[in-house]
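Complex record, two chains
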Amino acid sequence: MRNLLIPLALLAAAPLGAEDKPEFPAPSQIVGAAPAADWLGIAASDLLVMDLAPEANGKARRVVIQLLPRPFSQGWIGNIRKLATAHWWDGLAVTRVQDNYVAQWGDPDGEDAAKARKLPEGLAVVPESEYTAQTGEIVDFTNGMSEYQGEIVAWHKGDDYADVTAFWKGWPIGSNGLNFPAEWPIHCYGMVGVGRNMSPDTGSGAELYTVIGHAPRHLDRNIALVGRVIEGIEHLSSLPRGAGPLGVYESRGEQVPIRSIRLGSEVADLPAYQYLSTESQSFAKYAEARANRRDAFFIRPAGGADVCNIPVPVRRGPAS
Amino acid sequence: MRNLLIPLALLAAAPLGAEDKPEFPAPSQIVGAAPAADWLGIAASDLLVMDLAPEANGKARRVVIQLLPRPFSQGWIGNIRKLATAHWWDGLAVTRVQDNYVAQWGDPDGEDAAKARKLPEGLAVVPESEYTAQTGEIVDFTNGMSEYQGEIVAWHKGDDYADVTAFWKGWPIGSNGLNFPAEWPIHCYGMVGVGRNMSPDTGSGAELYTVIGHAPRHLDRNIALVGRVIEGIEHLSSLPRGAGPLGVYESRGEQVPIRSIRLGSEVADLPAYQYLSTESQSFAKYAEARANRRDAFFIRPAGGADVCNIPVPVRRGPAS
């Protein structure tokens, strides 16, 4: 197509054989060529499957969310498992879509004590201290990156929001360094978090949102993140924006009904999903190529990439 | 609303009087309190007004774009002025919407030489060297920022993509420092650029896109930016994503028709627009508050903000 802006995805729809390996593969080509061993399965029990009411034309709208692993946000994630098992969200709605910010879902009557849906018994009240945790495993990514073609990628150096940014078990993680060690998940596009009231409230997990714009990193460590959308985010990001303050829909008719939210282990027809191990050499090469685009479209590699501009590749894979 | 994620916009819909000034005003409160002199008018001749076909329910869809000032991208902007004056885009369409990336519009038949709409005479062929320019005025923002409450804001330090990031005449600008001075506009959310083919093609300006996701900064200095959407981006960002490669719509029926694109000076019913002077003390305070959220919702200020997380405030204002 004439004059089309051409990101590199187009140039590598399929993995390449050695015989047609370009000198500077695009990030998508590196991902396509990654060996099977570099892809790790995501357990169905770590997925949350949200089925929205179908579109007007009958097209299904399924959003698949991967929950964060230990040690992050486990109090809220425990609540979310309880809410899903209780089928608590069924019949509730997407109530808010704010451009370049978030889409949010939960109980439209949540502010009306007389009408609000009763929460299940036994939900945890999670303290603010749980916004951070320690894996004991986050390291400056320099070493891993510097093994590849002698290039040092700048994003390991940290940024305006964290002394170190890194990837750990498939997730973008920030750290404040070694003196007062704390680590936290990062508000990149598609990450899912827990709506809350004013501090010290931390939210229960009944009200959730996902990022549909530029990474709102100022929310890091101020709100609990619990996962990320790995499939179907377009069913949230392309919804009409709400006309009320903060993008809240002004009428019930504008809200998008939630048919059901289930743990993946309760969903019969769910495909298997895999993510590219962020500890693999394939990922190091992919991240390096995201930071230094030398493929044909580009004339000037950036020399770096911010952590949210290196999305972790996820694909449907064979059942694990 | 119970459990609602509360960004600060809600807390300051109107400017505050001195009697109810909070200790730590939210960014939106600082903007609301900015004196009239800090708001600068945008000339109608620097606006591009795109009217899409109305929604199914008859609702109008107008997108207002502000064009970059000299010295940036003037070759492409000259072409765009010619194309608008010739009414060249009328009846063409939004042809591509790729999630977390771009929405793009132009000639759906552009790749078919027999059907492609003929371009106006006299369009410039702009060299790649024009992806950067020099204002002679970009300075490290440290001095301006450090005057406010003794706080130094980290984003002036540069980032993974630029040695210095700054704001200049209302625009986010990158610079590679003093040795080989070059400056360039930055691919933040809502910025508008020129689709192109492979290098050395630079595009004419007939094919345009806007960013609808996390800032794709790797495109900086690789594609011409010509402006930004200042109103109505939701008419592009909330469109259904295209199912084809790169989000291209697979059928003509999915494309969104363009009724007209005009220079603002040709549009009778256009309101006046203003932006908050990025050289004003109000903007310095606003940027500092974006980087250090101390208002009630936040428990931990970030200590910095990336240049694309400090959107330049734009409002409708009195006719200038």
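Note: The longest helix of chain B spans residues 74-85.
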